[in-house]
Amino acid sequence: MEFEYIYKKPSALTSKANSYCPGCMHSTANKLIAEVLEELDMVGKTIAVFPVGCAVLSADYFLTDMTIAAHGRAPSVACDIKRCRPDKLVFAYQGDGDLSSIGMCETIHTANRGENIAVIFINNAIFGMTGGQMAPTTLVGQASTTGGKSRNPDDVGYPVKMCELINQFKAPKYIARFAMDSVPHIRDAKKGIRKAFELQLNGGGYSFVELISNCSTNWKTTPLQSLEFIREKMIPYYPLGEFRVPEEM
Amino acid sequence: MIQINIDFQKCKACEYCVSICPKHVLALGEAVNAKGYHSAEVRFAEACVGCAMCAIMCPEAAIEILKSKDKLSERSEQ
Ligand SMILES: Cc1ncc(C[n+]2csc(CCOP(=O)(O)OP(=O)(O)O)c2C)c(N)n1
Ligand code: SF4
Ligand code: SF4
Q: What is the pTM assigned to this prediction?
């Protein structure tokens, strides 16, 4: 009997098990990026820039060219690479500690200059790799090892909304926030990643794709419970949708 | 006919696929893989409708879904 695939593992990923925790949506995001690269036939023509944080575990998993930047510097490294090799598809892949804390400066200036790169932002509202410290994105009331049982905005301010912040600049072309907790949300997220990559390939411009993610290890939930946290706590504070889309899209 | 292949070594037993399947085709198994997880397995293959929701949810890309191209054999099975 002859079979055809309804779903096939993307060829841009190695076939071994990666090092992310069970249910970690870094893996989901990796899978979506890999699917888009395959669909656009860009696996061999892409340079990925991975950061510091759990996000760097992706470096072991992708079959594209890549480099790893110092903490927070991924967008700067990505724009340097893109300026030297404009023929390549270049994206930075960063967690929230990396992008909105130590790398806030690089994030903002790369966006403001409208560099022709895509930034994929994994927002899991916590520092994952180092064991659950508070990130700029940690929700009010959320527990963390450095913020105690509950983030107190009187003491440490309110969680930073990166899409809304970047939407203040004139140069960025595509700004959107998606989640990965359900099949429809995952489908939307994939379409968003595709738009960001296509934009870069067709004339270009800066794109920022935020993916609301999870960290059940440091949230101290099961993977299934982390889906509830995303729906009940994350999405109400970080509204999903496209903040800016180029006219031609 | 639908075929579901679950990569025993890649599964991390997050249960996303188990909880999302509208036909309750999948469950965590008894056997433990090299990383120590009770990999998901196919329990009721005949109930699968090929919607691929499990494969879309699976973070690990551990699930592949295939369907038979042969329309005749599909009909004769029913
Ligand atoms: C210059 C520097 N400062 C601090 C660290 C320690 N460090 C490693 S990962 C990390 C946080 C990463 O968190 P996030 O970006 O949210 O990524 P996640 O692990 O959640 O994917 C920190 C502070 C480091 N490696 N380098
Ligand atoms: S610690 Fe958190 S972010 Fe890191 S791999 Fe585990 S679940 Fe993912
Ligand atoms: S979704 Fe994937 S990793 Fe999670 S239990 Fe199912 S097959 Fe395993």
A: 0.96
